[in-house]
Amino acid sequence: MTLILIKNKEETSNAWVFDVEIEDAKYKVAVPKEYWAKLTQKRIAPEELIRQSFEFLLAREPKESILREFELPIIQKYFPEYETKITSLQT
Description:
The protein is α+β, with helices and mostly antiparallel strands. The chain is built from 4 helices and 4 strands, in the order βββααβαα.
C-alpha cells in the first residue's frame, strides 16, 4: 500500500486545509467541515477522511493524475461513486 503522509493541517471557520505527500508528489486539499460531517457523520477525524479519499483515488488513477490542489467535493465530479464508497466505509 502506498504511504500517504499528512504533513500539515490548517483550520479556517468552515474548512480544514491539509498538505499531503505521496512519495515525491505534494498536494493541498481543502475539506469543508459540512462536507466532512455529511460523509462521515463525524465518526472519523478529517485526517482519516483525507487518507480514505487518497486511497480511493489511488485505486483509480496514478498519483501523477491527481490534482495538486483541490477541495474534496470535486472528487465526486470525476468519480460519481466516491461519496457512496466513502460513506459505506463509515458504517
